[in-house]
Amino acid sequence: MPAKQKRADRTPDAPVRLAVRKTYKLFVGGKFPRSESGRSYPVQGADGGFLANAALASRKDVRDAVQAARKAFGGWSGATAYNRGQILYRIAEMLEGRRAQFADEVAAGTGEPTAAALSTVDAAIDRWVWYAGWADKYAQVLGNANPVAGPYFNLSSPEPTGVVGIVAPAEPLLALVSVVAPAIVTGNTVVVLASERHPLPAITLAEVLATSDLPGGVVNLLTGSAAETAPWLAGHADVNALDLAGVADAGQAAELERLAAENLKRVVRPAADDWRAEPGLGRLAAFVETKTVWHPRGV
Amino acid sequence: METHEAERLAAELAGSPEALRTFLSGLPGVDQVGAEQRAATLATRSIKTTAKQWALDLAVRMVDLTTLEGADTPGKVRALCAKAMRPDPADPGCPPVAAVCVYPTLVPTAVAQLRGSGVHVASVATAFPSGQAPLAVKLDDVRAAVAAGADEVDMVIDRGAFLAGRYEEVFRQIVAVKEACGDAHLKVILETGELVTYDNVRRASWLAMLAGGDFIKTSTGKVAPAATLPVTLVMLEAVRDFRDRTGRQVGVKPAGGIRTAKDAIRYLVLINETVGEDWLDPRWFRFGASSLLNDLLMQRAKMATGRYAGPDYFTLD
C-alpha cells in the first residue's frame, strides 16, 4: 500500500496518543453515581495544567450519602472486630497494588518529586495497616473492667458512635487515610468530603474500597466544595459525629460546630496535625461511646 | 341528583350476568405502554417551596395510618392513634391524618382513643387479606367491625371469582357488604397485584363502583407489587369516567409500597393531571401507609428548619 507507506514516512515519530480525559464520579453506597446536580469541576495539577474532571457534589448528594451510611451502619457495626480487621488489611493489600498510581496522582497534584510522593503513599498504606491492627485491640485499651463496691462485674466497652461526617484535610492521601481509617475501624460509617484541591487520590481510594470487601455505604466519598456541602453535613440530624480536620478557616469551623450542636454531635475540632507522626488513639477514641454494663455476680 | 343514573345502570347490569360481562368487556382496553409512559412522565415533575409545603400537609391529611400485623396489640394501636391525632408533637401546626386502619378486633381500642378527634377509624373486613371465606362469614366480619364503631370498612374482593370471570358473584358480594356497612364508608380493595393486567384493573374498578363502593383501593399491602403509579392512573381514569357517566364521585386509595414523601407527591401530581382538583382532598383520596408518615414529617421538618431531619426524632410506629 504505497499511500500508507508514504504517510508513515512523513511522520517518523510514534503517533501521539490522545489521552482519555476522565470525569470522575462520587462514591455513595458502594456505587459511583454522578452528582445529583450534574455538576463537575476541572482538577488542576501543581503546574496549573488540567488533570481530570471531578464531580462537584451538592447538598442532595450529602443527603444520599448520609442515607447510605445509615443503611450500612447496622451491618458494619455488628460485624466482628476480627472481620473488620480482615477487611481493612485487605484494603491495605489493594492500596499496595495501586502504589504507583497513587504516587503519580499525589505528585501531579502537589508538584513534589516522585520519590517524595511515593514516601507519602507508603506512609498512607502503613497508616492503614496500623489502624487495621487496632480493630480487635482498641476495646482492650479503651474499655475496662471497673472495680465496684457490690457483687457485680462492671464492664465498660467502646461502641461505635454511628454516622460520622468528615471534612478531609487538604493534603492528599496520607491525611485522608489518617481521618477515615480510625473512624471506620471501630464500626462507624462515614461520609467524607474530600479535599477540593486533591480529589484524585481520594477517588482512587474509593475505587480501592469498592473492589475490596468493604460493604457498600461504610465509606461514602464526595468531591467538590466542602465550603458548600459541609454545613449540610454539620446540620444533618442523622449524623452523629463530625470531624473538622480539613476546615482551615476558624470562623467556618465555629459555624459548623454551632450547626453540629443542634443535635449534640461529637465534634473533633481542626488542629495543626502532623500527619507523618504516629497518630495515637485520639481519633479512634473520639468516635466511640462508652457503654457500661453491670452484671450480677454469683454469690 | 344524577346518582340515580348510577343506580339505574347498576340495576340494569345486576339483572343478568351476561349484561354485566358484556358491559365490563366492552370497556376500552388500557394502553399499557402509554399508561406506564404517562405515569413515568408525570413522576418527573418537580414540586418545590410553598407548593411542596402545601403538598406535604395535604399528604399528611390523606394518610390512612395502618397497622395490619398478626402481632398488633391494643398498646400498639393506642400509640398509633396518638400519632394519628398529633403526628409531630413538636409542631402544633402539623395536621392530623385522615384515619387509622386496623383489624376488626382492635376497632374498639381505636374508637376509644380517637373519639372527638375527627380522625376516622377504618377496619379491614371480609376475611382480609385473601377474601377466601363464605359470604356469611364475610358479612359477619363487616357487621362486627361496624358495630364496634368503625366508620370506614376496607373490604377485599374475591379475586378467585373475578379472575374466573364470575363478575356477577363479585358484584353481589360487594352489594351485600355495602348493605352490611350501613352508614360506614366502603372501600373496595381490588388487589391489583393479583389482577395481572391493567384491563382487569379497569374492569374491577368499574365493577366495584357499580356495586356501590365509596372508594376503590389498590391493594392489601400483603402482595407485591402493591400500589404503583400506572395502576393508580388507570383507577383514577376509571373514577373520572364513572363520574362523567353517572354523576357519582368515588374516591381512590393506593396502599402498600408508598414510603417516601417524594412518592406521595408524585401521586398528588397524578391526581391533579388525571382527575383534577376535585380529588385533591382526604374525602376522595387516601394513602394506605405506615412508614410514609415519618418521611412526610421529616420533609416537613426539613422545610421548617432548613436542615435535614433524622429518623431518630420521630416515633417508629
From TrEMBL, chain A:
It holds the Pfam family Aldedh. The keyword Oxidoreductase applies. GO terms for molecular function: oxidoreductase activity. Residues 45-268 form the Aldehyde dehydrogenase domain. SUPFAM superfamilies: ALDH-like. Keywords: Oxidoreductase. This is Aldehyde dehydrogenase. It comes from Actinocatenispora rupis.
From TrEMBL, chain B:
Its EC number is 4.1.2.4. One of its GO terms (biological process) is deoxyribonucleotide catabolic process. Signal peptide: none annotated. GO terms for cellular component: cytoplasm. Keywords: Lyase, Schiff base. GO terms for molecular function: deoxyribose-phosphate aldolase activity. Pfam families: DeoC. Transmembrane segments: none annotated. It is an enzyme of class 4 (lyase). Pathway: Carbohydrate degradation; 2-deoxy-D-ribose 1-phosphate degradation; D-glyceraldehyde 3-phosphate and acetaldehyde from 2-deoxy-alpha-D-ribose 1-phosphate: step 2/2. It catalyses: 2-deoxy-D-ribose 5-phosphate = D-glyceraldehyde 3-phosphate + acetaldehyde. InterPro entries: Aldolase_TIM (IPR013785), DeoC (IPR011343), DeoC/FbaB/LacD_aldolase (IPR002915). Belongs to the DeoC/FbaB aldolase family. DeoC type 2 subfamily. PANTHER family: DEOXYRIBOSE-PHOSPHATE ALDOLASE. This is Deoxyribose-phosphate aldolase. It comes from Actinocatenispora rupis. The lineage of its organism: Bacteria, Bacillati, Actinomycetota, Actinomycetes, Micromonosporales.
